[in-house]
């Protein structure tokens, strides 16, 4: 399966969240931009640092025009614990079936988990920026993510 590219319509999905309700990407169309932040595993060192930094800068991410959804192949139970332990504000999504990671081209080889990747989708549902890390052990800093988000304004 060829991953979507910048300028393509973002593949729609519905995933179980750390909240009560499932989240459907297309429900944000015409209302909000969406940042998908794929990550390998909850509680790993790099993932914890990445989302704690996002938590610490949350006032810059939490705008009226943006939803941020970290996505991993962990169960929603594990993600709920990860979120609670670190006081994260974002709604985390469980891609336990790995279907969304496959659709977005983020599965890391045959390892069964998602590589770290970022997909910025505009209000029209079009991918405006996409970055897949070379290895799961590297990540973008919040400043870089915020700079890409600012380009949508």
Q: How are the SSEs ordered, and which strands pair?
A:
Blueprint lengths: L13 E4 L5 E2 L8 E6 L6 H12 L1 H4 L4 E7 L3 H11 L6 E2 L4 H5 L13 E5 L5 E6 L9 H9 L3
Parallel strand pairs: 3-4, 4-5
Antiparallel strand pairs: 1-2, 1-5, 3-6, 6-7
List keywords for this structure.
Glutaredoxin; 5 helices; alpha/beta; single chain; 153 residues; seven-stranded mixed beta sheet
Task: Note down, in words, how this protein is organized.
By secondary structure, this protein is of the alpha/beta class. Helices cover 27% and strands 21% of the residues. The protein has one domain: Glutaredoxin, CATH 3.40.30.10. Helix 3 (76-86) links the parallel strand 4 and strand 5. The chain has 5 helices and 7 strands, in the order E-E-E-H-H-E-H-E-H-E-E-H. The longest helix is centred in the N-terminal third of the chain and has 12 residues, at 45-56. The chain has a 7-stranded mixed beta sheet, with helices on one face.
Q: How many helical elements? A: 5
Secondary-structure element order, N to C: EEEHHEHEHEEH
The total domain count is 1
Q: State the CATH topology.
A: Glutaredoxin
The helix-and-strand class reads alpha/beta
- Proportion of beta-strand residues: 15-25%
CATH H-level homologous superfamily name: Glutaredoxin
Radius of gyration: 14 Å
First-to-last CA distance: 32 Å
CATH domain class: Alpha Beta
Multimeric organization = single chain
Mean pLDDT: 91
Let me know the largest β-sheet.
Answer: 7 strands, mixed
